[in-house]
Structures are given as C-alpha cells and as structure tokens.
C-alpha cells in the first residue's frame, strides 16, 4: 500500500478504536459483545473490532482491516464474528460508511419480542423518521444477518434495525453517525418501554412525523453557508 493509503487506514483505525468507547460510555454493550466498523472510502475495505477482545484493550493497532467479504487482510487478530454481516451491508448499501452492533438492554428487549418500536416521540421522529423496524432471526457468523439488515431497512428512513432475538444494528454515513443512531435507539426504546408501563401512548400524526424528520435532517444544527459575494 502507498504511504497515503497507510495513513488513511491508520486514521480510520484510530476513529474506530475511539468510537468503541462510546458503546461502553452509554452502556450499550457488556463484556466483549458489540462492535463498530467503518468503510475505507474509495477502497473495497473496512476496519472492524477484533473478536473477543476487552474494550479496555482496544487500540488502533489491534483493529482489523477486512475486505468486503469480511476476510481479514491486515492485522494480527481475527475480526469480529459479525464481520461478514457488516461487509454485506457495505456491499449492498454504498451510501453507508459505518455499521454498529449492540445488545443494549431496552432495544434488545423489543428485538426479543419481535416488535418494532412505534413512533410516539419527537426525538424518534427526528432521528428515525418513524418506527424502528424488526429484522428476521439469523445465525451469527455468515452474511445472513447482513442480508436481513439490508432487506429490512430498504424503504425505511430508520438507520436502526432490531434483529429478532439478537440485538440492534445501525448504519450511518460514517461510523460516528452509526454510533449516534445506536445511542438514540436505546434512548427511545427505554422511553417507549416506560410509556407502555404507564398506559396507552398518544399517537403522532404521520404528517407531523414527516415534518419533524425533515426539520431535523435538513435544518437542525449548524449548517455551513457560502460566503457572501463582493
């Protein structure tokens, strides 16, 4: 690889290693479960967490570079057991630059029920554009999980899917966006659970959900502006 390619991959290794700390910070994972990956732009490669390594021991040098079949091409450790699933998502969804998997408690409880999280909150409308859907059950190790993710998210605005009897997978334009979606998914899943415990949620009109999603995606936050002309 050229020096420029080496530098690009090292920066992504650093980013992926650092973003794993967000999963533990927000209590989305336990022990060594869960993973973050990032696409290498312009290359048929991704960077992902090694399998079975403690979060405290994750560092740029032990992230694993894989091809888009999930096969390790750089690094001394075996990649995450979800590498093939992540790779399938990157092959099928070229707009995706990051994938995250967690077993966060409240969202995974909805996955265990095989029930989508209905949209009764402005925060969920903002981030997910409606309900958070449920994907099919699939065994770990191959790309069946990836196929389920892609099939379920097709036609959905949600960047998160609850894989039945398994956990949460999220996608984003980059790995940080996918981590944010995982954090927000657990947040709305917890509130949805509490709402159900208190009684029947008040529905939101579809038009309001659409308006909230559009505002959050296209207006909210700091937006760059072109400099004024002379």
Describe the structure.
With 230 residues, this protein is of the alpha+beta class. Helix content is 42%, strand content 15%. The protein has helices at residues 3-25, 83-92, 105-113, 122-128, 144-153, 175-198, 206-218; strands spanning 35-40, 45-48, 64-67, 72-74, 98-102, 134-135, 160-163, 167-172. The protein has an eight-stranded mixed β-sheet, sandwiched between helices. A hairpin with a 4-residue loop joins strand 1 and strand 2. Helix 2 packs parallel to helix 5 (144-153). The longest helix has 24 residues, at 175-198.
Short description:
This is L-ribulose-5-phosphate 4-epimerase. By secondary structure, the chain is of the alpha+beta class.
Structural class: alpha+beta
For the record, give the distance between the C-alpha atoms at the N and C termini, rounded to a whole number.
Answer: 45 Å
**SSE series:** HEEEEHEHHEHEEHH
Oligomer: single chain
The global form is globular
Helix content: 40-55%
Q: In this structure, how is the largest beta sheet organized?
A: 8 strands, mixed
Strand content: 5-15%
The stretches of 5 or more residues where confidence is low (pLDDT under 50) are: 226-230
The total of beta strands comes to 8
Widest sheet, order of strands: 4-3-2-1-5-8-7-6
Mean pLDDT over the full residue set: 95
Report the total helices: 7
Query: Radius of gyration, rounded?
Result: 18 Å
Cofactor: Zn(2+)
Family: Belongs to the aldolase class II family. AraD/FucA subfamily.
InterPro entries: Aldolase_class_II_sugar_metab, Aldolase_II/adducin_N, Aldolase_II/adducin_N_sf
Protein name: L-ribulose-5-phosphate 4-epimerase
